[in-house]
Amino acid sequence: MGLLSDPNRRRALINLLTRLNAPICGMPVDWLVKTMQAQGLEVFTQSFSRTLPFPDENKERYIVKGTNVYGILRAPRAPRTEALVLSAPCSPGDNNNQAVGLLLGLAHYFRSQVFWAKDIIFLVNEHDLIGMQAWLESYHHTNTTGMDWSPLQGRGGSIQAALSLELSSDVITSLDIILEGLNGQLPNLDLANLFYAFCQKIGVLCTIQGRLQRNDWDSVSGYSHAVQTMMLMVMKQASGRPWGDHGLFLRYHIEAATIKGINSFRQYKTDITTVGRLLEGMFRKLNNLLERLHQSYFFYLMPSLSHFVSIGYYMPAFGLLAVILLLRALDLWVQLVSPPAVAQSSPGVLSVLTPLVISHLTGAALYILPTRFQEIAVEHFPVSETEAVVLTAIAVYTAGLALPHNTHRLLSGEGTEQGWRVLKLVAVLYLAVLLGCTALINFSLGFILALTLVPVAAFVTPHVPKTLSAVVLVILSPAFTLLFSVFFFQELEEMPVSFQDGWLLYLSVISQGILDHYLYGSLVYPLIALMVYPCWLLFWNILFWK
Amino acid sequence: MAAPLSLLLVVAVTIRAALNRSSLAELIAERVEVVSPITAWKRVIEGLALLDLGVSPYSGDVFHETPLIIYLFHFLVDYAEITFMLADVITAVALYVAMKDFNKQVFRKQKFSLEAERYPADCLELIRSPTEMFYIPLKVAMFYLLNPFTILSCVAKSTCGLNNAVLSLFVLTTIKGNVLLSAIFLCLATYQSIYPLTLCAPAMLYLMQHQYVPVNPRRAAFWWFVVQYLFMYLGSLFVIVCLSFFLLGSWDFLPSVYGFILSVPDLTPNIGLFWYFFAEMFEHFRLFFLCVFQINVFFYTVPLCIKLKDQPVFLMFMQLAVISIFKSYPTVGDTALYLAFLPVWSHLHRFLRNIFLVSCVLLACSALFPVLWHLWIYAGSANSNFYYAITLLFNVAQILLVSDYFYAFLRREHHLTAGLYLKKKDGSEATLVLK
Q: Taking the model in full, what pTM does it have?
C-alpha cells in the first residue's frame, strides 16, 4: 500500500522526479504556478518585500523582495476547516534543489488519493525564513515585524501541523530532523516520535543534530556521545533562532519540524522515492489527527532520537541554582534587618535607584544604538554597516564596564556598608526572577545564563579581592559566555575553528542575533541587552563599591 | 510640602503620558491582569457606540458599567487619557490630605495618652514622633502614583481608576468628619461596584468617634447616628439609581451591572479566585458556591469591626484589602489602592514577620503572570492550571501581607497597654503567642 505498491504509479513518479531534478535556481514563479495548476491544485502567489535593518553578510541580502507560491489540495470529502502544510524553501544555488521536485511529486500523488480529511498546502517560499514569516503573518492576519506583504488570496483552515523539507541531493544516506524553533520553542515530542517510527518502519537511517545514535549506553564513550548530542540541542535552543523553516510555525501553535536529507560517505544510499514514502506515511498519520498534538511533552531535551529528558528531570537542576540566589537574598535581608552595630544613616531608596537607572540606561543604549547609528559609524570609520552594528554593540558593552568608576565621582556620599547590601539584595532578586522567567520560556538559555551568572552573583561583595574578581566577573559576563559557546558549539559539531575564524564567527553570530530580533521577533537580543546586561552591570557596580 | 507633591504629580503625569504615546498602550489595554470585563475601556467604547445607535448599551452582554459612567464618557471620550490621569491625581491628592489630617489626630491622641500616663514606661520607643510622621502623606501619594500597577491601570484606561478616585475621596471626607459627603461618595463607590458597601461600618465608627458619640449599642445616640448615616447613604443610593433609570429610560442596567458582579457569568481569567473555580463547577452546585464566595467578601466585616472598633482607619484599610482580594473581578488597580496605605503603618515594621517572603512572592508573581499567559495562550505548552497557580500564589501573598500587618498592629496595641518587654512571673522573658 502507499506510494510504491502500484508499479505504474511508481514509474510515473520516477519519471516526474527525473524531469524535475534539474536544479532550480532563483524562483521560477510562473513555471511553479503552471506545474501546480497542472497537478490540479488551487495555486496562489504572495509577494513580499522587506528592507533589513542592516545588510545580512551571511546570506548577502539587504533589500529583499520575493514571491511565495503555494497550492492547496482541497480535501475531497471534508469541510475545509483544517489544513496541513508541506513546505520547501527555494533558494538560489544548490542549497535545496531537490526538495521542490519531491514536493511536486508528492502533490501529484496526493491528488489521486481520496482519504484526505484535511486540506494540504504545498508551499514554496522564497528567501527561506523571510518568505515564511510573510506567509504565516498573512495567513494569521497579524503583522508583528513590519514586513510588507500582499494578502493571501486563498486559504485553508487552521493549520494542524507542518513539515519543511531540505534536500540537496537526489540520493541520501540519512534523514535528519530539526526541532528547535524560534525562541527555543519545540514541537510536541509526538512529532519527533512519528518521524522516528516511520524511519524505523521504512528502514532509513535517521539522525538528530546530524549524529547517529549509538546502542552502547553503558560505556563511557556511548554516554558522552549522547551528552554531546544533548549539548548541541541545548546550544541550538539557547540561541533562540529558528534552525529550519518550521521554526516560525511554532509561534502560532502549529506543530512543525524540518526534515533534512544528508548525503554522507556511506555505501548504502536511499533514493528520493523512499523519502516520499516516508513523508506520505507521516502525512497520512497527521491526516488522521482529531485534535492538535498535545498529549506528549512540549519541553524536552533529546540525547538521541529514542531517548528524551523531560522537564520534570531538568527543571530541578535549574531550581537548585535559583535557590542559591534566594538563600543569598535571605541572608542579606537578615543582615539588613538586624540592628546595625554602629548607628549609621540608613541608605535611602535613592542610593539604590541610581545604579539601577544607570545600568538600565546603558542596557537601553546597547539595544538602541547599534542599529540607529550605523550610518554615522560608516561615515567615520572604514567599516561596512554590519561590522558597524556589531562593533558598536561591543563598544557600548565595554563602555559599560567603565561606569562604576565614573558614577562614584558624580554622586558623593553613596558608599555605605548598608548601601551595597541593599543594592545586592535588589540585584539578586532581580536576577532570580529574570532567570526564572527566561527558563520557563527558553530553558536552555535560562540554564546557561544561570550557570554563568549565579556563582558570580552569590559571591561578589566589595570586600573580595578586586582584580581577581573583576577578571572572573568579566569572563562570566554574557558576551564572553557567547564567545565560549561559539567555540564549544564548533567543537561539538566536530568542526573546531582557530581563534581568528572563531572571532569572525562570533561577530557574525551577534549580527545574526540582532537581525533575528528585527526580522522574526526573537527575544534573545532584547533580553540580553535590556535585562541581563543591566543586571550584570549591577554586580559590577557592587564589586567596585566604595 | 506642596513643592514635593507637585513635583511628584508632574513626574507621574509625565510617565503616564509617555507610556500612552508609545506602542505599549494597546498591549497593556488587552492584558487580563489590568482590565476585567467590568472595567475594560474597549467595552466602554462599545457601549458608547451602541448608545449612539439608539440601542440600549446593555444589550449583547458587552457593557457592564453604570449609566453615570456612560454619560460621563459621552462628553469626555475625546479626553479619555486626561480623565484617567486626572483621576489618579485626584486619588493621590485626596490620600495625601487625608493622611495629613489623620496623622494630626493620631499625634493628638498619643499626646493625650502620654499626658494621662496610659503607656507603660518601657514602651517609649514605640511612641511615634512628628519627624517620622512628617513624610508619610508624601510617601502615600508616591506609593499610589509611582506604583507600576497604577501606571498600567491608567495607561490601559481601566475604569478602576475612577473607582479608586471615588474611594479615596470617601476616605478624605470621612477623615475630615463630613458625614453627608462621606455618605455620598460611599454611595457613588457602591453604585459602581457593590463591594464598598462594607466600608459603611468603618465610616460610621470613625464619624461617631469624631463627633464623640459613644460606640455603645445600648445607647440611643449610637442608633440615632446609625439611622442618620444610613438614611443619607441609602437615600443617595436611591436617588442615583433612579437618576440612572431616567437617564436611560429602562431598568436593564440593574441585571447588567449588579447581576453581572454578583452572578459572575464571565469566566475570563484574571488575578482573582473565581474564574478557575467556576469554570470547572458542575451546574447544580454553582449557586451554592457563588453564595459562599460572595459572602466571603462581606463576612469579615463584623468580626473586624468588633476587634478594631477603636481604630477605624486601620479597619478601613483592612476592608479595602479584603474587597480587593476577594471581589469577583479584581484587577491590579484595586491592589494598588490598598498598597498605597502601607506607608501609614510603616511604624509597625519591627513587628512584621513575613514582609520579605511576601514582597518576593508578589514581585515574582507579577513577573510570572505575563510569562505563563504567553505559554498558555500563545505557545500552547502550558494550560490554565499554571496560570491559576500564579493567581493563587499572588492572592496568598496578598492575604499574608494583610494578615501580617493586622498581627503587627494588634501586637503594637498590646505592647502599648502591657509594656514592651514582657516578663513572666519569675522574671524571665516571656514570649507572645497570638491565639
A: 0.90
